[in-house]
UniProtKB/TrEMBL annotation:
Keyword Manganese (UniProt): yes
Record InterPro entries: DHS-like_NAD/FAD-binding_dom, MenaQ_synth_MenD, MenD_middle, THDP-binding, Thiamin_PyroP_enz_TPP-bd_dom, TPP_enzyme_TPP-bd
Family membership noted in the UniProt record: Belongs to the TPP enzyme family. MenD subfamily.
Signal peptide: none
The encoding gene: menD
Provenance organism: Oceanobacillus caeni
Self-association state and partner proteins as the record states: Homodimer.
Phylogenetic classification of the source organism: Bacteria, Bacillati, Bacillota, Bacilli, Bacillales
Function: Catalyzes the thiamine diphosphate-dependent decarboxylation of 2-oxoglutarate and the subsequent addition of the resulting succinic semialdehyde-thiamine pyrophosphate anion to isochorismate to yield 2-succinyl-5-enolpyruvyl-6-hydroxy-3-cyclohexene-1-carboxylate (SEPHCHC).
Name of the protein this chain belongs to: 2-succinyl-5-enolpyruvyl-6-hydroxy-3-cyclohexene-1-carboxylate synthase
Keyword flag Magnesium: yes
Length: 583
């Protein structure tokens, strides 16, 4: 068998193994050494390829797509520093538990450490940020080797999704020539391996469930307590919202719902969902009025810093953190019990417990405080555009069954404060694993491949940091609206001690004004641009963009100093009314 046929059958069996394991999308970063993988994925009839030239953007694009699909997406790149440009998205995927399969092409072993071009050390280059690394064997086409590549493909897909999802890295050494021959007979068939045709799936995996004994132990600890809290942090389990909402109604307890919990929106009961807790908990006196007996948290730690203070001040409360598989996402230092079981099933089993008698005044107090917070959030009206009002307006007109992808720093905090409960199905996404601002636009573009409406909320720094991501909208004709909140710098720092008026270096190091006219970026990538000066204009522009195809960038301009004063004024009014009533 000639070398090209060996290369072709080896690569084709691997790619077909990936596809047969359920992967539907591959993101390809062009390059020479990756030619066998890139062309073979493109040739396969049952996988969709997305080609993006910027590896850093491509990796975040794949991350957004995988987050939206809740299943692995494949990344392919050539050797050298192309592989390093994937690293930021790999780190984010690791911490936010997103399944990615990274396939890096490499020089063959004889060209490594010899000064050959585009040959860097790629073995385990992503360190502990991947769940599994494997250096693939050099191509052969014996039945044993074809079985080997199919097994590795299947294992990669399973391991990426197994337990807490994460990143798989397979490194492929390829010798030249690199171009496969797709005229070869029976290209996608496992020649010499007829049993592969008869297999529907290679792995059967179940969900974790507590034993009756463990469940009884938890119930015993909780049943005599009167003031309980359920907390839902960032998570993507689709059934959890309804299960948690029903449990909260049955027990008569409030649910503090992070905007990334997917609990603030949907058709489940919203009666006990407290979305204004970030505003309520900003004041220490109010936090002291709300001391719980127990806290059960689902998902990661919420975005809210006041909630973090609240947790640290209530170390004596009985505390549980529920994880579907495993993990220790609890950094308060509190004495915490971990429950590793399917979250929805756990709620449904706890729902069957009948002898809980909570203090009804506890739930009433939370609801009344939440009503006060929402009243002032909704009643705030300013002549000049404010960032919080812009976010609130966005959610008022966001279409049903859509995605909102949010930048870190100020935008996610404004979403936390100003996204109110809604019966619309709105999935809110953000890259909260490592909390960086990079890759926002690319990730949102990846989510937009779902064909559902996507709105990205970006600050001017996160927009600038990932402008290359706009190319995906042009290349793939994606329908994306970007709300660009331009306060000419890092707005979050204006709320931090670094903003002290005596800090003469604040603007240069923290404020970092860009002074960029962003309209030209939108035009360069074939998008439409508009600026909104009032909330009514913003709503009208947003609604128009949702009814049209393509990329729309809608900018609002705000002042960082005024933004701090405006936020503080709202928090003070909420704080004053709550303390007057209960303090």
């Amino acid at each position: 068998m000639e070398r090209i046929e060996i290369l072709t059958r080896y690569t084709a069996n691997f790619v077909d193994g990936i596809v047969q394991s359920g992967v539907t999308d591959v993101v390809i970063s062009p390059g020479s050494r990756s030619t066998p993988l890139a062309l073979t994925f493109t040739e396969h009839p049952d996988i969709k390829e997305w080609v993006l030239v910027d590896e850093r953007s491509a990796a975040f694009f794949a991350l957004g797509m995988a987050k939206e699909q809740s299943k692995p997406v494949v990344l392919v790149c050539t050797s050298g520093t192309a592989t390093a440009n994937y690293f930021p998205a790999i780190i984010e995927a690791y911490y936010s538990r997103v399944p990615l399969i990274v396939l890096t092409a490499d020089r063959p072993h004889e060209l490594r450490d010899t000064g050959a071009p585009q040959a860097i050390e790629q073995i385990k280059m992503y360190g502990d940020y991947v769940k599994w690394f494997h250096e693939m064997a050099l191509p052969e086409a014996t039945p044993e080797m074809l079985e080997y590549v199919r097994n590795k493909a299947s294992r990669a897909v399973y391991t990426a999704n197994e337990g807490n999802p994460g990143v798989i890295h397979l490194n492929f050494p390829f010798r030249e020539p690199l171009t496969p021959d797709f005229a070869i007979d029976k290209l996608w068939e496992p020649i010499g391996l007829p049993h592969w045709k008869q297999i529907d799936q290679l792995v059967y995996d179940g969900e974790k469930q507590l034993s009756s004994r463990d469940l009884k132990s938890i119930v015993t600890q909780l049943k005599n307590l009167k003031r309980g809290l359920i907390v839902c942090g960032p998570q993507m389990e689709p059934r959890l919202a309804e299960s948690v909402a029903n449990l909260a109604l049955k027990w008569g307890v409030p649910v503090l719902a992070d905007p990334l919990s997917q609990v603030r929106s949907g058709h489940h009961p919203l009666d006990n969902i407290i979305e204004g807790y970030d505003a309520i908990l900003k004041n220490k006196t109010i936090r002291d009025l709300l001391k719980p007996d127990f806290i059960i948290r689902f998902g990661a730690m919420p975005v809210s810093k006041p909630f973090l203070f609240f947790m640290k001040e209530n170390k004596d409360a009985v505390q549980f953190v529920v994880e579907n598989h495993a993990g220790y996402r609890e950094f308060t230092g509190n004495r915490t019990q971990f429950i590793f079981a399917n979250s929805s099933q756990l709620c449904e089993r706890l729902f069957q417990v009948t002898d809980f008698k909570m203090d009804p005044s506890w739930l009433r107090k939370w609801k009344n405080m939440n009503h006060i917070a929402k009243k002032h959030i909704l009643s705030s009206q300013e002549e000049k555009m404010t960032e919080g009002e812009a976010v609130r307006s966005l959610f008022e007109v966001t279409p049903n069954d859509s995605y909102v992808y949010v930048a870190n720093s100020m935008p996610i905090r404004d979403v936390d404060s100003f996204m109110l409960n809604t019966e619309k199905n709105i999935t809110v996404l953000a890259n909260r694993g490592a909390n960086g601002i990079d890759g926002l636009i690319s990730s949102g573009m990846g989510a937009a491949t779902s064909k559902k409406p996507v709105t990205i909320i970006a600050g001017d720094l996160s927009f600038y940091h990932d402008m290359n991501g706009l190319l995906a909208a042009k290349f793939f004709q994606l329908n994306v609206t970007i709300l660009l909140i331009n306060n000419n710098g890092g707005g979050i720092f204006s709320f931090l001690p670094q903003s002290n008026s005596n800090n003469k270096h604040f603007e240069a190091i923290f404020g970092t004004p860009l002074d960029i006219d962003f309209r030209y970026a939108a035009f360069m990538y074939g998008g439409k641009y508009a600026i909104a000066n009032t909330n009514d204009e913003l709503k009208e522009l947003l609604q128009t963009s949702h009814n049209q195809k393509g990329l729309h960038v809608i900018e609002i301009k705000t002042d960082r100093a005024e933004n701090v004063v405006w936020h503080q004024k709202i928090w003070k009014v909420i704080e004053k009314e709550i303390i007057e009533r209960w303090g």
